Amino acid sequence: MQKLLNHINTPEELRLLNQKDLPQLAKELREFIINIVATKEGHLGASLGVVELTIALHYIFNTPEDQLIWDVGHQAYGHKILTGRKDIFHTNRQIGGLSGFPKREESDYDAFGVGHSSTSISAALGMAIASQLKGDIKKQHIAIIGDASIASGMAFEGLNHAGVTDANLLVILNDNAIGIDPSVGALKQYLTNVKKGTQKQDNIFEALNFDYSGPIDGHDIDTIISELERLKTIKGPKFLHVITTKGKGLKQAEENQVKYHAPGKFNAQTGDLIVTSETIQAPKYQDVFGHTIVELAKLNKNIVGITPAMPTGSSLKYMMDEIPERAFDVGIAEQHAVTLAAGMTTRGLIPFCNIYSTFLQRAYDQIIHDVALQKLPVIFCLDRAGLVGQDGATHHGVYDLSYLRCIPNLIIFAPRNEIELRNIMYTVQLGLENPIAIRYPRGRGVTIDWKQPFSKIEIGTGVQLKKGNKLAVLSIGGIAKNITEAIKNYHTPQEVAHYDMRFVKPLDKTLLHDIFKTHKTIITLEDNTIKGGFGSAVLEFAAANHYKNNIHILGIPDNFVEHGSVNRLHQSIGLDAKSLTLYFDKI
Questions:
Q1: CA–CA separation, 124 vs 196, rounded Å?
Q2: Is 531 a catalytic residue?
């Protein structure tokens, strides 16, 4: 039998199919996603779970005229394949290839660029109101959001506004009881009760003036199509509750939904993960954080851990398993996580608030108003700082040094390796008068000797890693390893000094004075935007002290960096070791 998917390149072609053939198309679409992601990697489970829903949406609605907004976008692979990108889907998340998330400039079918959660309802409502103001009352606006994302404050803000409008908005709740980790909180329990038929209180979505329907089986394509057809005729805000299984169609992905959210390479036939040499290398930074906080928490009863919905990714899961009463997953609620931590410090607790760098941006007011202004010693652990690779522009943590450096009372530290991460975690739990942000990258660095005793780090001090008589290179964080390699390959390595400044704020001014007095040329290197970051801080120091040295600022350029492996991205912007060696020659 000839495959239906071979002949489907656009939703227009999809709509020519007989409805009875759609289950076969769903089977083929799942196989296509599994076969590509098995070798190219990416987000698997979420896209497998919405195959029938994706087909039904494009079958019933006149996309791209009707607008589909996929919240976060982890689940949009099927959408991409059906909307003209099937033949290049193998380039997904690779440099120069498709983005792993919906992206407006990539396709007219991607109505809104996404990557961070809980934005879909607000965006779709904005589009619906715009259509209404322009007199286009027939255009449909559909937000597809998961049960973890809808618990976020921004999603509730969108629901709250939509409920007092007559906008042509359909919110579809893709309820599978899991985001990246299992969903948490009272809303999860409410949705569980709705699914089991035990919810005795009023329907929360009807109370917000939505026309609620469901829950329906998200894998029964005929039921979905029937309900979507009905909802097209209803005016005002509507809410469809759809029950799906994350990882549907691949046994291992259904049984281990956390691991198969983004599993890496796996066997497409068996579903078994492929073990690579990287799997058995030195521990990841996040695992060092996870094991270290458990180690310290056993010694210090005031330590608590907080994460907004990333216990596995941040490795706070280790503490949740061993000391569950002192480890908190607050759901996708970065603002709440920060102010919760602030409140805890007022009562003598020592909160390690672990948030990915790209997501801490969402709690900027809380960092300033609730933490720094009050000098509350919250410990922010910024995972995934710097370039993160295939997730691309929405996830690179390359702005934290800039957006944090301007905040008074805040200490900023970047460990060169995992040993330094352990030592700063030990240091800060001994007692601080100010909050601190500790930013570290995704990935692996050095092997850890877990029996090695902790060392206290003096706040605001840098270290010299190598002496040199001509050129001084100042680095911050894990990118120091690129400089070390670059110096080794330089024809006169004795000319190059290397300093790990460690603290962006406060700067080690004593060390900087010594550097500026003994080296004519100075290079700063950071995996942060060159605008307002570490290099800018050094320039400000030089200007304030009337130094006339030749200063070169290297870092992430002033544009959004796309997706690709970290090594390839470093090469593309000149931050890899080979490019740095050549740069030394030019100056």
A1: 30
A2: no
